Amino acid sequence: MQLTGKQKRYLRSQANKMTPVFSIGKAGLSEDWLLEVEKALAKRELMKVNLQQGAEVSAKELAAFIEDNSSITVAQVIGKTVLLYQEAKEAKYMKYSLEVSKLA
Predict the structure, then answer these.
(1) Which of 42, 55, 58, 78 would bridge with 51, disulfide CB 3.0–4.6 Å?
(2) Element (H, E) at 73
(3) How many other C-beta atoms can be found within 10 angstroms of the C-beta atom of residue 14?
């Protein structure tokens, strides 16, 4: 999903006080890790992922891996933090997607 500037600004404002849910360390990236992220996003829609100091990948490499191997949208990469967004499929978990769709 391609986000507009307004949609990205909205998501960044909502994530401003969030803490990262997942971290990437020396173990690096894997398909299993990505599946866990997708499960978490199915219930959250928006979350941060943090790179630990010993991580062997950069935040931009992480963002590229996620976008290439899933339907998750990277809303922002800043420092060692990546903001991820994926629209929820179940109505009870739709917290941000309703507003994002209005901003299109």
Answers:
(1) 55
(2) strand 73-78
(3) 18
H or E element that contains 22? strand 22-24
Q: Are 69 and 75 in contact (CB under 8 A)?
A: no
DSSP 77-89: EETTEEEEE---S
Each residue's pLDDT tens digit, 23-36: 998 888 889 999 99
**Around 23, how many Cα atoms within 13 Å sit in the side-chain half-sphere?**
7
Q: Please return the burial class of 30, using the count of CB atoms within 10 Å of its CB with bins 0-12, 13-18 and 19+.
A: exposed
Q: 77 φ, ψ to 5°?
A: -125, 120
- Domains of the chain, with CATH numbers? 5-89 (3.30.110.60)
Q: What does the mean pLDDT of the chain come to?
A: 92
Residue 47, SS3 per DSSP: strand
Q: State residue 33 phi and psi, 5-degree precision.
A: -60, -45
Residue 34, both tokens: 């990505």
Pull the structure tokens for residue 28. Answer: 């690096």
